[in-house]
Amino acid sequence: MSASLPPKGPGLPNLPPQQQQQVHATPMPGPGQPAMPLREISPVFLCRIGQETVQDIITRTMEIFQITRATQLPNGVTQSQAAYQDRFGKLQEHLRQLTLLFRKLRLLYERCVEMTSDLHEGPAELVPYLGEEVTPVRVEPCSPAVIQERQEVLEKVRQKNQEMKVLMDQMRNLLWDVNAMLTLRK
């Protein structure tokens, strides 16, 4: 019994073909069978798809600007009707794709909000405002290996910061000397 895959809809935004097959491979329950849930898509995966969608939106927008920049204004010069129609068609296609990408982004956003609605932290709790008193965060004790690794990373960062400070001082002194020599030449 071979069934074809349904087309992508709002519930399956731009999944790779393997995952679409995995999601749709779940057999549909019969009248007497309990419903089996589809494989859950994580909010992190949806956010990654959303990031790629935003990148596509930016790319399409840049292409629209390039097309409009390359288009000459009708200042009495006759341009070939075919070239005009070609550019107009490309512009229309980019605008149509841009509309679809924004719809896709909206669906992804709504799905992420729906999936993460059970989180306790709101945006105000995650990023404190200036002048707002910050409530202390309870930190659970870490394992000794994590503490040691943190100390090693902090020591490496301190060493790198010290090296950067030395280099910045050397560059500052070099620029000072160059400026002094240039001033003496005049």
UniProtKB/TrEMBL annotation:
Cellular-component GO terms for this entry: mediator complex
One Gene Ontology molecular-function label: transcription coregulator activity
Key words of the record: Activator, Coiled coil, Nucleus, Transcription, Transcription regulation
Region annotation (Disordered) ranges: 1-36
InterPro entries on file: Mediator_Med30_met
Ranges in coiled-coil conformation: 147-174
Biased composition (Pro residues): 7-16
GO terms, biological process: positive regulation of DNA-templated transcription
Compartment(s) where it occurs, according to its Swiss-Prot or TrEMBL record: Nucleus
Record keyword ATP-binding present: no
Keyword Transcription regulation: yes
Pfam families the UniProt entry points to: Med30
Family: Belongs to the Mediator complex subunit 30 family.
PANTHER family, alphabetized: MEDIATOR OF RNA POLYMERASE II TRANSCRIPTION SUBUNIT 30
Job of this protein: Component of the Mediator complex, a coactivator involved in the regulated transcription of nearly all RNA polymerase II-dependent genes. Mediator functions as a bridge to convey information from gene-specific regulatory proteins to the basal RNA polymerase II transcription machinery. Mediator is recruited to promoters by direct interactions with regulatory proteins and serves as a scaffold for the assembly of a functional preinitiation complex with RNA polymerase II and the general transcription factors.
Listed name of the protein: Mediator of RNA polymerase II transcription subunit 30
Phylogenetic classification of the source organism: Eukaryota, Metazoa, Chordata, Craniata, Vertebrata
Gene behind the chain: zgc:114119
